[in-house]
Design brief:
single chain; SH3 type barrels; four-stranded antiparallel β-sheet; 183 residues; alpha+beta; 4 helices; elongated
C-alpha cells in the first residue's frame, strides 16, 4: 500500500472532471481542518495541572478598598433638589417658594419615615399635588419642622406650634374635625 501526499492529490486535481474540480478545494480544506482537530485532541489527552493560584497579599486589600466606589453623602445632593432639573432656568418655581406666613399649614402629610439614622416626612403640596420629602429642621409652606414622631409631626412658625397627623386635611391641625356639610 502506497501513501499519497498532498502534492500528489493537488497534482491530480486538473485531471478530475469539472464538477469534481470545484469540490476538490473545499474537500481538501475540510480534511486538513479535521486532521488538525484530531491532532489537537490527541495531543491534549494528558490533563495539564491547573494554574497555581496565589492568595492576595494583605497589602493589596487597602489599595483595592481605596479604589472601590462609594456614594457621597446625601447632603451633597442638596443643590440638585434646590435647582429643578427639568426647569429651563434651573430656579425653583413660584409654587416652591415659601408661602405667606399668615396661612395655616396647607400641605397634606402623606407619610412619615423613621430610621435609625434619620427621620423624614413625605408631604403632598400644590395642585396637582406633588410628593416631596423633608427632614427635621426643613421649612414647608413657611412652617419649620420641629419634631417627627411615628404618628405626628410638630411644626412651628413665629412661636406658634401646629401638630399634623397622617391623613389630616390641608389647613387642619391634629385634633380638629372637618366641618359638617349642610343638608
Amino acid at each position: 500500500m502506497s501513501s499519497v501526499s498532498v502534492r500528489d492529490v493537488v497534482a491530480m486535481i486538473p485531471a478530475l472532471p469539472a464538477p469534481l474540480r470545484t469540490l476538490a478545494f473545499p474537500v481538501l480544506l475540510c480534511a486538513g481542518l479535521a486532521g488538525g482537530l484530531v491532532l489537537e485532541v490527541a495531543g491534549s489527552s494528558s490533563p495539564s495541572p491547573p494554574p497555581a493560584v496565589t492568595p492576595p497579599s494583605r497589602s493589596a486589600a487597602p489599595a483595592e478598598a481605596a479604589t472601590r466606589f462609594t456614594l457621597p453623602p446625601l447632603d451633597s445632593f442638596a443643590e440638585v433638589i434646590e435647582r429643578p432639573l427639568f426647569s429651563s432656568s434651573r430656579r425653583p418655581s413660584a409654587t416652591d417658594t415659601p408661602q405667606s406666613t399668615d396661612r395655616p399649614f396647607s400641605a397634606t402629610l402623606a407619610g412619615i419615615v423613621i430610621s435609625k439614622k434619620s427621620s423624614s416626612i413625605i408631604v403632598a403640596q400644590g395642585d396637582p399635588s406633588v410628593l416631596k420629602r423633608f427632614k427635621q429642621g426643613d421649612e414647608v409652606d413657611g412652617w419649620s419642622i420641629r419634631a417627627i414622631e411615628p404618628n405626628r409631626v410638630v411644626l412651628e412658625r413665629r412661636g406658634v406650634e401646629q401638630q399634623i397627623k397622617l391623613g389630616d386635611a390641608p389647613g387642619r391641625s391634629a385634633g380638629e374635625t372637618a366641618p359638617r356639610a349642610h343638608r
